Amino acid sequence: MKPVRLSADADVELAETAGFYDERQGGLGAAFVSEFVKATQLIQRFPSLGRPMGNRMRRVLTNRFPYAVIYLEYRDEFLVVAVAHTSRRPGYWKNRMTHDPRAANHDPRLGTQHFFAAN
Predict the structure, then answer these.
(1) Environment class of residue 33 by beta-carbon count within 10 Å: exposed (0-12), middle (13-18) or buried (19+)?
(2) Is the pTM of this model over 0.85?
(3) At the top level of CATH, which class does the domain 4-116 belong to?
(4) Cβ distance 15 to 58 under 8 Å?
(5) Could you state, in order of their start, the residue ranges of all structural domains in the chain?
(6) Could you tell me the mean pLDDT of each successive run of 10 residues in the chain, 119 residues long?
């Protein structure tokens, strides 16, 4: 299976959201990250499962939390472009396609963070 990589923006969103939930209740941030990882594993197993969002982007919802994982599929990996709340600022991440390093013919690993390998 292809690895899942987070854009720099998505990495910040994941960390901030986990921190927010952890402040509310100890361990809740870790539960959010766990649900995020489950969503990425679903993406790896069933790439077309996500709802099309335009510009080649797709969306998979997390369980237990009102968040969506917005991603692109490439030949060798999946790129998460946003970890977006489902009720706040709809579509704010849509312009990130223009910031995709691959679209600009840059090294695809610059400006990105975590890799999630297949289990």
Answers:
(1) middle
(2) no
(3) alpha beta
(4) no
(5) 4-116
(6) 90 94 95 96 93 86 96 91 87 62 41 44
